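Example 4.3 (complexes with small molecules)
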Amino acid sequence: MIEFHNVEKYFGDFHALKNINLTIDKGEVVVIIGPSGSGKSTLLRSINGLNTISSGKLVINNFDIADKKTNMNKIRRDVGMVFQHFNLYANKSVLENVTLGPRLVLKENEEQSKKEAMDLLDLVGLADKAESLPSMLSGGQEQRVAIARSLAMKPQALLFDEPTSALDPEMIGDVLDVMKKVAHEGMTMVVVTHEMGFAQEVANRLIFMADGEVLEDDDTKSFFAHP
Ligand code: ADP
Ligand code: ADP
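Answer. The structure with adenosine-5'-diphosphate bound is encoded below.
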């Protein structure tokens, strides 16, 4: 569902992505690792159009992003993104944070959006916080709400850009557990993370990037089988 063909990305003179060729199929959980500045985030952001690519071809859900007929808003709806910083609406309750997108964008009615949101808050273990404001939550809880909010848009794939990097260590496990549940429900996921335990346990495939290049792309077992 995500295909990179000879993708290059320049920021001015800086060559951020070098000849990227990747195919990610429906249902895969792919973890991307690599040193800071190696292009992981740039690669992820190009998938849902937050970054343009300089050349090559990028096809999402069979739609070439360079094709004028491709609706990038639809792509962004189909491919959700969870960021390091969750950016919840501070003056809205947890429940409203989750129902807002479905109501405004998917045109769901109040009853339906609330029911779905409560199911998702249940999934992330925060149904009892539905009426709380984000400021009442820990960072880990806020990130779990952000994941519920992304899922509420019924995406076909979810991208995670270092979702636990801004969290206190004791919060990380709960967020990774939620991501594991989402993976087990069959969501296609691309995750940039340094959490190698999560990678080994949940990912079916690992990609190692350095200096804008994919240096290794292997199934998880093989990846961990050699140094
Ligand atoms: P990673 O996620 O692996 O840490 P990034 O994809 O964020 O790496 O960044 C790769 C390189 O591209 C870095 O050197 C970064 O400074 C550069 N870069 C990223 N975004 C921009 C931008 N908008 N303008 C200029 N340079 C950028
Ligand atoms: P829904 O999200 O409503 O289930 P579908 O994915 O079934 O939508 O697509 C509805 C219609 O929109 C189909 O005809 C499909 O070909 C078209 N479509 C889907 N994604 C895009 C896109 N990114 N750009 C343009 N058309 C799209």
